[in-house]
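Protein chain data
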Amino acid sequence: MKKIIYYVATSVDGFISGPDEDISGFMATGDGVARYLADLKNFKTVIMGRKTYEFGYNYGLKPGQPAYPHMRHYIFSKTLRFEDRSPQITICGMDIEIIKDLKKKSKTDIYLCGGGQFAGWLLENEMIDVLKIKLNPLILGDGIRIFGASSKPFQLRLMESEMFDDGLSIITYRIQY
């Protein structure tokens, strides 16, 4: 069975964006970002919530098109509709059985591309296997939390940690359910 890997940029205080979805303080270049982009090449499947998919519109993503051209997309939403949808995109309802099926059938581990609300739902249903944090050296104070409104506690086991000269760290944990 393949793993779901939540590979996400966060501030030191646990936000994946600031107020009004502001990500301007997060690092966009450097060795750590290059490592992240190289790591994405290992995934063939990506899952995300509607808000994360639509966030891509701010960066040139066309509605109905894949955010990651080499990946099969599963977007979890009750309301998202497209007039012209790529065959790489499947829109799913919030059904944990779909997640379990993807874990069984995916050819690679699955990239969880957020966001906080969707990740919180997956965490509460014990579906995220690995948390891979791109820890940015900043404090946002407010914004979207890494696991949304989820408040269920879990222990983590450190698997790997790498620090880069620009201050970014990539920290990998296994979630212990």
About this structure: The chain has four helices and ten strands. The chain has a mean pLDDT of 96.
